[in-house]
């Protein structure tokens, strides 16, 4: 490396030598001729690139024909960007480069500021201009010191600006923007980077058919909240939420995370460099790097930074059932009754918009749903719960809207009165003299969209009051919020689909947005991103299926163009407050649209999927990704929402769905019933799978409790636990519950077995009844998966898992005694349990009333000892005792007549306690064996003798 190359980049902290990425680019007499086809940044990402346009922007046109048709033919010269004009300790001043390619979608801003902040282990880089839009949602932006540090290198004055992020311990580059391509116009911002490897996970919300992003081709993933059903056959579409975050693995298997905090329409292109290009059409670049170095640590750091996940009520971990299209309450009762009659555990009944009077929020259909309150009370008597749906849009000619106007609540509105379509507005006395933007959704008449970002308290107060008053009419237990991208019907269309709906009493005009004139820049920007191009390029706009980008939010101070992606999150924040105020309990919020930090307020279901095998498989990836995003309470509609579910598909989906944190069967109106009781075999499979789930709910709840305290994943990709095993890096079709349990779903039709992989570095034991406790062979194996048996589930050696004898509701189950499952790997096993009342509101964990225990099982030559340490103590909280200790993989002969508790001999149940030397399983049973409410450290121990085993019993 030359001295000039070495001096080109200077670190704020420590200088580390490196090679310039631009060495790959061929020069002749200082003129760039070619950038390799695998490292290009597209100069014409909009469809329809041509040579004349390309060259007019100063970009390079390649006339070659490539087998890979994704290769950009029009691309930026490598040194495109900004020049450093001033370099301070924690900031830089940049000027638009005097030469090089132009921004193809607007003039680059003449000056930019780069601000660099080190916060313990996290690096934050902000590139932009003061006064530009930034999301107003609060983030904690805190991060504990992990002793793992990242370093930043930046170019010197007079050089084209670039920065690199490097891991201090290994010197590995995790971001390298010397690839070029920094652009910053008002409505087109771009940054590109080389990556340390192609092992990138995250970005969303999209359907990804593999857990790891594929880098063989150039692939663009749009991110813009849209009412768009997931379709694995058309995966490169933007769905309901926006999560510009990814986790990356480096060559030495260290992990890092990157968040780009921006709420405008945006996209990311992955390329075979490996590299990525990020584009947005508003705001600034606010990029945060998380050092890990373990994958789970990256996610914990990210969750601490954005707000750790909420803790759902215990009942919300039970099985839930819903369908859209109940004609009356009797049909809902019948469906729930069928499930109960089949003996299938179930906790929650849902009512979709059918229960409302003509689909208006905070109303009850008088003719067919008048007894909903009584039914809710009936469910409560059975230990069950009720969750209701609410949409954000409110019809503008009924009492809910009138109360909003009287309380001065804010709604999304036009900027000026001359934009208001008076022929629509004048039909509604309450909206007539306002600028409120009216649109169409489910109700019969026009609707308005609450401004959930209102900085004043009036909108929040009105929204919360509506829930409090409605709870008096129907005592619901949780809230399901839908259509909150926000969705609108028929926008910009002249014959929307609902004109042909015979159920609608009148045809009402859809919303029309402006594509010409001074304000058209918001609804018709120069670059609309692949959030529109992924659909009908000629006709699609950002405002399709939603409201106009020119609209105003934040009580008239900000544009929908900037804030639309925040709408669902803002509604979640206020709705969680409404849930707490109305019920006085924690409950659970489920939202369709999500953004960064949504998991702090509620959960998510994966939307209006279809009854297809490919959708079942895609959900396995989806639940893992949303755990990365900080929304561990997640699941897909079991058996599929759209389309007719087959018996076999529903059976396999019920088996998989029993392992979703949010486990709900839901389907569309006009489709056949798909509650599991419709088919005898499905009912048996659902009963078996749900009872298994309920058996292990204390473990699942403890996982959710732990991530609420510390951040992290509940549904965990396998590579998180076994990163050194490269076979796990793209192993997306199976997943873990925490660190202990491995689930291998069946996702193929007509299967009687399933291929799965068990990492080599630990032991694995089956948890299925048919081969319970059997030691499984590590590596790739074919496992039996008949329809009448649970899908393969394994527990890792060295774990202690708390479980509980199940009943048909969580309410009944919580009264049953607890059990400890101990799996032996070496000489020590560990685990933990959290326990609370399952329903109280958590304002602050430092003052919250809960128990936390840590379990440690230690084996010595002549004795086994279980230590129970109470880490956090609660008051006036009843905890079931431990009645059973089940040890598997135990190669010792125990002396069951010498079991002691806290050094006092106890008598175990001799009829139920035993040791099976063939299975290497020890079972100790005694009613009230361990009282967990005792504060002092407790110890259960017994003497044993080593069994010298052979291949038949080891």
TrEMBL record:
Q: Which GO terms describe its biological process?
A: carbohydrate metabolic process
Pfam families named among the record's database cross-references = Gal_mutarotas_2 (PF13802), Glyco_hydro_31_2nd (PF01055), Glyco_hydro_31_3rd (PF21365), Trefoil (PF00088)
Cellular compartments annotated: Membrane
Checking SUPFAM superfamilies in the record gives: (Trans)glycosidases (SSF51445), Galactose mutarotase-like (SSF74650), Glycosyl hydrolase domain (SSF51011), Trefoil (SSF57492)
User: What does the UniProt keyword field contain?
Assistant: Disulfide bond, Glycoprotein, Glycosidase, Hydrolase, Membrane
Single annotated GO MF: alpha-1,4-glucosidase activity
Asked if the record carries the keyword Membrane, the reply is yes
Where in this chain does the entry annotate a coiled-coil region? Answer: none
The entry sums up its family as follows:
Belongs to the glycosyl hydrolase 31 family.
Matching entries from PANTHER family are given as: ALPHA-GLUCOSIDASE, P-TYPE DOMAIN-CONTAINING PROTEIN
Q: What is this protein called?
A: P-type domain-containing protein
């Amino acid at each position: 490396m030359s001295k000039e190359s070495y001096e080109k980049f200077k670190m704020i902290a420590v200088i580390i030598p490196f090679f310039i990425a631009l060495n790959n680019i061929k020069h002749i007499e200082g003129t760039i001729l070619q950038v390799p086809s695998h490292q290009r940044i597209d100069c014409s990402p909009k469809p329809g690139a041509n040579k004349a346009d390309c060259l007019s922007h100063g970009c390079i046109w390649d006339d070659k024909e490539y087998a890979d048709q994704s290769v950009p033919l029009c691309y930026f010269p490598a040194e495109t960007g900004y020049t450093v004009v001033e370099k301070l300790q924690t900031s830089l001043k940049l000027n638009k480069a005097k030469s090089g390619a132009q921004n193809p979608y607007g003039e680059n801003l003449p000056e930019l500021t780069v601000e660099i902040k080190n916060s313990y282990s996290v690096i934050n880089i902000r590139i932009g201009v003061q006064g530009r839009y930034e999301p107003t949602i609060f983030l904690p932006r805190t991060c504990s010191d992990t002793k793992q540090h990242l370093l930043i290198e930046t170019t010197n004055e007079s050089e084209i600006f670039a920065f690199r992020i490097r891991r201090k311990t290994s010197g590995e580059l995790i971001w390298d923007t010397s690839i070029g391509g920094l652009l910053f116009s008002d409505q087109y911002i771009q940054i590109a980077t080389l990556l340390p490897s192609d092992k990138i996970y995250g970005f969303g919300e999209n359907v990804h058919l593999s857990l790891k992003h594929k880098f063989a081709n150039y692939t663009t993933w749009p991110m813009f909240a849209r009412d768009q059903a997931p379709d694995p056959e058309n995966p490169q579409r933007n769905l309901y939420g926006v999560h510009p975050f990814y986790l990356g693995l480096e060559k030495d298997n260290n992990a890092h995370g990157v968040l780009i905090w921006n709420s405008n329409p945006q996209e990311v292109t992955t390329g075979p460099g490996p590299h990525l290009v990020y584009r947005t059409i508003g705001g600034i670049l606010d990029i945060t790097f998380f050092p890990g170095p373990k994958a789970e640590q990256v996610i914990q750091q990210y969750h601490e930074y954005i707000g750790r996940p909420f803790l759902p009520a215990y009942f919300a971990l039970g099985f839930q059932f819903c369908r859209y299209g109940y004609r009356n309450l009797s049909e809902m009762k019948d469906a729930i009754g069928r499930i109960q009659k089949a003996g299938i555990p179930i906790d929650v009944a849902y009512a979709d918009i059918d229960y409302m009077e003509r689909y208006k929020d905070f109303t009850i259909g008088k003719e067919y749903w008048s007894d909903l309150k009584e039914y809710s009370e009936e469910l409560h008597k059975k230990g069950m719960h009720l969750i209701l749906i609410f949409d954000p849009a409110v019809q503008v000619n009924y009492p809910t809207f009138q109360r909003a106007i009287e309380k001065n609540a804010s709604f999304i509105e036009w900027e000026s009165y001359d934009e208001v379509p008076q022929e629509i507005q004048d039909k509604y006395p309450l909206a007539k003299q306002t600028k409120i933007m009216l649109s169409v959704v489910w109700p019969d008449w026009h609707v308005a969209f609450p401004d959930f970002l209102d900085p004043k308290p009036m909108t929040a107060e009105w929204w919360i009051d509506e829930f409090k008053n409605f709870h008096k009419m129907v005592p619901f237990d949780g809230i399901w919020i839908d259509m909150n991208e926000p969705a609108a019907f028929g926008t910009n269309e002249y014959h929307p689909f609902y004109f042909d709906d015979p159920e609608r009493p009148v045809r009402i005009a859809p919303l029309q947005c402006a594509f010409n004139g001074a304000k058209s820049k918001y609804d018709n920007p120069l670059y609309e991103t692949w959030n529109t191009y992924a659909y009908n390029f000629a006709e699609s706009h950002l405002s399709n299926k939603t409201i106009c980008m020119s609209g105003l939010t934040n009580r008239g101070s900000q544009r929908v163009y900037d804030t639309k992606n925040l709408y669902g999150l803002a509604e979640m924040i206020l709705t969680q407050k409404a849930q707490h105020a109305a019920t006085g309990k924690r409950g659970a919020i489920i939202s369709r649209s999500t953004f960064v930090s949504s998991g702090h307020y509620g959960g998510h279901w994966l939307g209006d999927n279809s009854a297809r095998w490919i959708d079942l498989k895609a959900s396995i990836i989806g639940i893992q990704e949303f755990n990365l995003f900080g929304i561990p309470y997640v699941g897909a509609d079991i058996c599929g929402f759209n389309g007719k579910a087959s018996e076999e598909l529903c059976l396999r989906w019920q088996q998989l769905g029993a392992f979703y944190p949010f486990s709900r069967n839901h389907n569309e109106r006009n489709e056949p019933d798909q509650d599991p009781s419709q088919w005898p075999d499905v009912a048996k499979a659902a009963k078996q799978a749900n009872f298994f789930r309920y058996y292990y709910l204390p473990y699942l709840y403890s996982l959710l409790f732990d991530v609420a305290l510390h951040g992290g994943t509940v549904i965990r990709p396998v590579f998180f636990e076994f990163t050194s095993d490269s076979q796990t890096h793209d192993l997306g079709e199976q997943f873990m519950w925490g660190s202990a349990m491995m689930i291998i779903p069946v996702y193929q039709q007509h299967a009687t077995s399933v291929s799965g992989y068990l990492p080599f570095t630990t032991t694995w034991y089956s948890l299925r009844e048919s081969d319970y406790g059997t030691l499984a062979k590590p590596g790739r194996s074919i496992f039996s998966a008949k329809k009448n048996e649970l899908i393969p589930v394994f527990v890792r050696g060295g774990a202690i898992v708390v479980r509980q004898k199940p009943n048909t509701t969580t309410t009944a189950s919580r009264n049953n005694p607890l059990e400890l499952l101990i799996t032996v790997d070496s000489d020590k096993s560990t685990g933990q349990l959290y326990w609370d009342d399952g329903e109280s509101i958590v304002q602050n964990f430092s003052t919250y009333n809960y128990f936390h225990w840590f379990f440690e099982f230690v084996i010595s030559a002549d004795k086994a000892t279980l230590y129970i340490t109470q880490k956090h103590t609660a008051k006036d909280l009843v905890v079931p005792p431990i009645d059973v200790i089940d040890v598997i993989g135990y190669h010792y002969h125990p002396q069951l007549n010498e079991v002691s508790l806290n050094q006092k001999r106890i008598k175990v149940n001799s009829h139920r306690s035993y040791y099976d030397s063939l299975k290497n399983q020890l079972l100790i049973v005694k009613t009230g064996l361990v009282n967990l409410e005792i504060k002092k450290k407790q110890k259960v121990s017994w003497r044993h003798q080593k069994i010298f085993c052979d291949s038949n019993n080891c």
